[in-house]
Design brief:
Blueprint: E1 3-7, H1 21-26, E2 30-33, H2 51-63, E3 69-74, H3 77-87, E4 92-98, H4 109-112, E5 119-122, E6 127-130, H5 135-138, H6 145-154, E7 158-159, H7 161-164, E8 179-184, H8 192-199, E9 206-210, H9 216-219, H10 221-232
Parallel strand pairs: 1-2, 1-3, 3-4, 4-8, 8-9
Antiparallel strand pairs: 5-6, 6-7
Domain AB hydrolase-1: 4-226
Protein name: Pyrethroid hydrolase
Keywords: Hydrolase
C-alpha cells in the first residue's frame, strides 16, 4: 500500500481530487488531499499566504504519516512539492508533477509562467479571482459540463504572493528524489510546449502523456488513475 498526498493548484482545494480518490482506494492505496492555506476550507487571509506557508502545510502533513509518501502536485503546486522535497527528501517516495511547474533553483511561478487564466486582482487583500466566463475555454476545455459546474461552484480567490516567492533547491536534497511528470497535450493553461521545456531541465524517471486539458483528473479520470497506479508499482 502507498500513501498519495495530493496538493491542489491555484484557486482550488482538496476537493478537486474527490473524483479519483475512490479508484485509488479500491486499489489499496491511502489518499490524503489537503487544503493549502487560504484555499478550500482553510480560512487564512490571502494577504497572509506565501509559498513558505504552503510548504509548511505540506511538510507538517507528511510528518504525521508513518511512511514515505507519493507527493502529487498540480499546476502551481509543482513549486510547492519541489520545495517540500528540499525540506524532507527522506519522507518522499516519489514526486509526481501533474501538468505542473518545474522550477529551477531561485525561480518563482512569475519567472516561468506566460499568460495564464484570466483573472481580476483585488489589491486590498492581494488575491486573484477567476473570470468565470473564460474558465471553460481557458482551463477545462476538454472537461464535461458537470465538472465545469463543480469547478465554478467550489473555486476561491487565489493569493498572489505564492506566485512571486522563489524556491531554494539543491541537487543533494530535492535533486535526489525520484520524479515523474504527467503532461497534458490539450492544456491551455500551461501549454504543452512550456511543460516540455520545463521538464527537460531535470531528469525524470518517466513522462506520462494524456490527451487532456489542464485538469486530467476531470477530463481523463480513468487514464489519470491508471498513471498513478503505475507510478505506485515497485520499480
Amino acid at each position: 500500500m502507498n500513501t498519495f498526498l495530493f496538493v491542489h493548484g491555484a484557486f482550488q482545494g482538496g476537493w478537486c481530487w474527490d473524483q479519483i480518490t475512490p479508484a485509488l482506494q479500491q486499489k489499496g492505496h491511502k489518499v490524503v488531499a489537503i487544503d493549502l492555506p487560504g484555499s478550500g476550507e482553510d480560512v487564512t487571509p490571502p494577504q497572509d499566504v506565501s509559498l513558505k506557508s504552503y510548504v509548511k502545510k505540506v511538510v507538517s502533513t507528511i510528518e504525521k504519516i508513518d511512511q514515505p509518501v507519493i507527493l502529487v502536485g498540480h499546476s502551481m503546486s509543482g513549486m510547492v512539492i519541489s520545495q517540500a522535497a528540499e525540506e524532507i527528501p527522506e519522507k518522499i517516495k516519489k514526486l509526481v508533477y501533474v501538468c505542473a511547474f518545474v522550477p529551477e533553483n531561485g525561480q518563482a511561478v512569475s519567472d516561468i509562467a506566460s499568460g495564464g487564466p484570466k483573472a481580476t486582482l483585488n489589491e486590498k487583500d492581494q488575491s486573484l479571482t477567476l473570470i468565470k466566463e473564460f474558465i471553460a475555454d481557458d482551463m477545462l476545455n476538454e472537461s464535461s459540463e458537470e465538472d465545469l459546474r463543480l469547478f465554478k461552484r467550489n473555486i476561491r480567490p487565489q493569493p498572489v504572493q505564492p506566485f512571486e516567492d522563489k524556491v531554494s533547491l539543491t541537487n543533494i536534497r530535492f535533486g535526489h528524489v525520484p520524479s515523474v511528470y504527467i503532461e497534458t497535450t490539450k492544456d491551455r493553461s500551461i501549454p504543452i510546449d512550456l511543460q516540455r521545456q520545463m521538464y527537460a531541465t531535470r531528469s525524470f524517471e518517466r513522462i506520462y502523456t494524456l490527451d487532456a486539458d489542464h485538469f486530467p483528473f476531470y477530463s481523463r479520470k480513468k487514464e489519470f488513475v491508471e498513471c498513478l497506479v503505475d507510478i505506485a508499482q515497485p520499480q
